[in-house]
Amino acid sequence: MEFPSAAAQVIITVIPIVGIVAGTTIVFFYLYWNHKQKMFLIEKGMYRPKPLDLIAFSFFAGCILTGVGAGLTFFFYLKEGLGYSTLGGLIPLSVGISLLFFFSIQKKLQNGDGHETNR
Fold it and tell me: Is the pTM of this model over 0.90?
């Protein structure tokens, strides 16, 4: 069996570290500049907070989690059958279905009462 050279092993080890450091740096500066922008807008009296639309968020997150969970469940079931590894797909699947259930209940409550219930 032939092992990769020492230089190749070092490069393979360094690439993820550089990626993580670069990604962290980008996220840090985004948060820093976003904070500075909000502080400037607050000082000038121009800041308008954006409310979270819980209904739209629950639908969006529910669709994504249901899709990812169904795909993972199907993959793990084909790979290893029913077992603990299948939980890796069943957990996001059940959370996604729960969010979609919450979305449908909230929509029915909004339509029945004539006002929004998430604010």
Answer: no
